[in-house]
Design goal:
2 copies of one chain form a homodimer. The first copy, chain A, is of the alpha/beta class and 380 residues long. Helix content of chain A is 46%, strand content 15%. Chain A has helices spanning 38-45, 49-56, 65-78, 84-91, 107-123, 136-148, 163-171, 195-208, 225-240, 256-271, 283-297, 301-304, 314-319, 328-343, 367-376; strands spanning 96-101, 126-131, 153-156, 176-179, 189-193, 213-218, 244-249, 276-280, 306-310, 322-325, 352-355, 358-360. In chain A, helix 9 (225-240) links the parallel strand 6 (213-218) and strand 7. In chain A, helix 5 packs across helix 14. Chain A is elongated. Chain A starts with 37 loop residues before the first helix and ends with a helix. Chains A and B meet through helix 4, helix 5, strand 2, helix 6 and helix 7 of A and helix 4, helix 5, strand 2, helix 6 and helix 7 of B. The structure holds a DNA duplex (16 and 16 nucleotides).
Amino acid sequence: MTASRPVTRPGAAPTTTMSDDPTPTNRTAALGARRATITDVAREAGTGKTSISRYLNGEMGVLSPDLRERIEAAIAKLDYRPNQMARGLKRGRNRLIGMLLADLTNPYSVEVLQGVEAACHALGYMPLICHAANEIDMERRYLQLLTTYRVEGVIVNALGVKEELLQGFAQGGIPVVLVDRSVEGFVTDMVGLDNPAAVQLATCHLVDEGFEELLFIVQPVTHVSSRRLREAAFRETVATLNASGSTLVIDLADASAALAELDARVVAAKRAGKRVALFAANGPVALRVAVHLKERHGVDWQASVVLMSIDDSEWAQLAGMTTVRQPTYDIGRRAVEFLHERLGGAAMPARECLLPGELVVRASTTRTDQLDMQRASQGT
Amino acid sequence: MTASRPVTRPGAAPTTTMSDDPTPTNRTAALGARRATITDVAREAGTGKTSISRYLNGEMGVLSPDLRERIEAAIAKLDYRPNQMARGLKRGRNRLIGMLLADLTNPYSVEVLQGVEAACHALGYMPLICHAANEIDMERRYLQLLTTYRVEGVIVNALGVKEELLQGFAQGGIPVVLVDRSVEGFVTDMVGLDNPAAVQLATCHLVDEGFEELLFIVQPVTHVSSRRLREAAFRETVATLNASGSTLVIDLADASAALAELDARVVAAKRAGKRVALFAANGPVALRVAVHLKERHGVDWQASVVLMSIDDSEWAQLAGMTTVRQPTYDIGRRAVEFLHERLGGAAMPARECLLPGELVVRASTTRTDQLDMQRASQGT
DNA sequence: TTGTAAGCGTTATCAA
DNA sequence: TTGATAACGCTTACAA
């Protein structure tokens, strides 16, 4: 069972090319497949493990140039890499940071991830990325796994976690930073979009552009604070501006009813002679709605219905759709920084970092286009 | 420095709600922030570590019901979780599988990842996901890190790795599975799309639909085998069918020249009275081209130019673009299975698993649309 | 400046 | 059926 596992050998590989040295000619060959350990290096360099460890940890001031050279040579010769696991076990910290993502299919997550990765890189952490893929069970399971791998901290883009699970980390002294949304009953650092400001920005833009009936489309707001905040901000802004607007809740897993309702409202508004604009609460909603509108109104759907959204999806440019771009990269970066500060011992009340969104104006909401819209607004 | 890190305390957290028990009232409180170890459990259960270990590893047949119950209770009481790092250190395997992705921004990667995750889950592995974000340095760095964390195997969607780096894994007895593309000079298991078949499928479709001039658009093929294979297959198919077609290389980082050339070729073909179709070698290329065409021909660009692509991007449906959908999920799954077999000791020549793509026909290449195209084909 | 030895949380060996 | 005890690969007092 633990027999030496034969290394992949050429044989009759179809498409691939060359490479035909039959024996593992390199330096590690003597050790078999086993990786060199600190003991091997010590022996090779003719010294003790301590000195190797010192070398590895950069305590150069305390090593004679001679010894240092021998160590360097030994490490190179054996192609030695310190075992992080062992290191972590001894030190009590393994530089691992858990990053739990609700849905990588949402470009938002990928972008946040990029920020997280960059910051981790800069600060010497290794992100242990967990993708719940919208499965609440997966989320729970990964959270357990993270605790099992003894991550030093976690960044959570929550799907449906309950407060208690996260509480477990906090009580274990493992800092938790929430991203995009908070978790009911759990007080901790959190980073995300300044939803009220972003929604206000967008809503004002629509009103400025002369739209008279606004329809905000959002997934079920239960337990997802960012959705709730966006919806609330929409209503509030509409009220403040004395504009006319309503909210439509759509479940992406079963959207037909909501989409029918959407059509109905659009038609009603048009009948009332109002210019109507649709405002999707995030990228996935926007895509779903766009696909529907295209099915209903044809390729030229944008002449009939105006759509904008939060999240600057990659196809937004193609569709010429106005959006609010989230500062995703910074959100990720900031989350890691929060964690880093906590890991450094910072003891302060939970913080909240709300970053501003950026309005990206495109043709969809622009006056010239509205004229087209006017012209074609007869569709039922 | 190692002082007990104060757990996040409410304070004046703005948006969040409730939770105000001032003391950590739960069971682990007595231990401070430290997680319970196997020794703690043994003491609590009034037995030795060995029995706990046996329990953890499911050797139930060798435990008296009584002891078993006590252990169960102790584990629950202390909320004990075995430390994977320590486990791995002792056992020599930590169930970690490295997954190196070239670019998560490409939905292809995310989809493959989903398959990988599912398979890992099923087989009891934990994927350690590394995202090179198109940076060749990152890729190298992550590869080093993976070796440092002693992953049991690696799945690599290569960016620009050199054979030697990967050779290091193989020689260390760590199986490597390549995804989507091979690495020159490195012979190992690999999983990906059956490029020749997929391209042939698409090309035949275009010819069947009556297109007379085909333009294949692909990123620089150097060192990315899948691109090379697709391009070759395109040329071959075109030759076999006695059709007319050419290839255009586009560098997404600096696309203007290629896009100008593209326009020129399209115009030339149309002047010659030929129906022309563009065939993008992957999703990112398709998006770039589509955005360009839209800028050039306006919202109704699809009436002027026909585009299809490999990779069924999320916006493909919105644009009504014909595509070849890759079996991404299966690719990921298969890669893990390959790894699992190697880890189980399977010693056989390197294998190659080429999965078929699926043609998804949409309006862009469909006859009725071509008529529109004909009508509007006067654009310079 | 260098080395010895103890121990991190497990599992494996061996004896009871 | 159970339990000491010795590793695993590393860091860290503490000596020399």
